[in-house]
């Protein structure tokens, strides 16, 4: 539901990721493997789908680069303005290097990256005169901050009066809640450097980040009212929750497509692609007629899967916010820091089962992670990391593919209704 998993090249990797959720590893790791995999390449052919140009009003460019120490982080720019401005005027500011995350929902920006003219124009959300705050627990830490309203512009798309999270808002007197009704255990990500990005653009399959659960009942570790230095858990109406911005667009509001150029198997210093808004709404975002594999999911984008004989129940997903391919393997060698280190590129196969019971065979490649990271590159299509509690098909799988995310309750001309994930590989 609220999962973001990434590799921070400056932090230590949790090998048993049930505790930390995400992961990280040293960019200059040089740990030897405990076992040996035969040096015979069994890798599958790379996907070859190419992105559409990013010059249309419903597109923005995606870049993976060395902006931070994070590998495989897809970034976009967003323009944020005061609510009701229509996305123009002196209250607007462009904020670069915001993570594209298909397994979370809503825009979250660090207060420190929002210029003063824009920050002053945002409107704080309150209930009974008390500020509304939110804690969001991601794979390797929590974001804590106020809920505020803004206008968001991306290319020609406008999301008006959008509830967003302002992380580490200095005007919020209360510190991050802990204990029984507090945030999940994890680090407090209070600066851009702790995340490796200036914010998170959550554009997955849910229209909001909690939904009726937070509207109709008390959900610990989500929304709070903070009148002073202490907070109490709160119910928040769906319309006031942090919202998937795509759902607020006037036209191209039924989903997105993440399209990335393929990179060499040894990695690249930079990766590029296009984020396309809408599915079957414009000439450049067709799903119907593409022959795409379409996989209905639960509202959070999760499915069942089987990999190496192990079953995963609603814990298999495709996540652009995950820098690696996270899975448990008993056949691949791995370094003590958790990166898989096969002696030659190795092709692996998982079987995903969609909410409709449709099945899809997912093929991906894994190469020696220590060698890849030591290359100094930032974009990798074959970086694998040990994780025992989920099958997280992360950013490496996105290169050379068009990855579609249909928002729950929204239909496409292809006759499919969200939530779903779909992909084409050529």
TrEMBL record:
InterPro entries for this protein: DUF3443 (IPR021847)
Signal peptide: 1-18
Organism domain of life: Bacteria
Keywords: Signal
A Pfam family recorded for this sequence: DUF3443
Keyword Signal recorded: yes
Protein name: DUF3443 domain-containing protein
Organism per entry: Paraburkholderia azotifigens
Organism taxonomic ancestry: Bacteria, Pseudomonadati, Pseudomonadota, Betaproteobacteria, Burkholderiales
